[in-house]
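Async update (no meeting this week)

Hi team, since we skipped the sync, here's where things stand on the single-chain job. The sequence we agreed to prioritize is pasted below, unchanged from the tracker. I ran it this morning and attached the output directly underneath so nobody has to dig for it. Comments welcome in thread, and please keep replies under the output.
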Amino acid sequence: QVQLVESGGGLVQAGGSLRLSCAASGRTFFNYAMGWFRQTPGKEREFVAATSRTGGSPYYATSVKGRFTMSRDNTKNTVYLQMNSLKRGEAAVYYCAADQRPNGKSKINVMRYDYWGQGTQVTVSS
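Output:
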């Protein structure tokens, strides 16, 4: 089992940048593929990015490709989401998630992931 704690959210102007972190407990963090999702009130949780257990070849939602960068540091049990050129419509609660073992679901599907953090709020002002 793993516990996830996100941090780094806050208020940023449109066009600005934020770096989110997700710290994981436990000694087997390297066994988990990881994902970032976001959610606004009344909407479904939306895929943002995902990375493999080694951190190679991150996969991004089309809407964030070229602006967001996901990385992980297995020595620190942490994944990151660097968000540049943020848009007002990207204000949301951002969640990280851990995938312990493949279950046939796509990496963009919330049902693939076994563990979730509590989320961190990102607010984008004009």
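Quick observations from my side:
The mean pLDDT is 95.
The chain has no helices and eleven strands.
Reply here if anything looks off.
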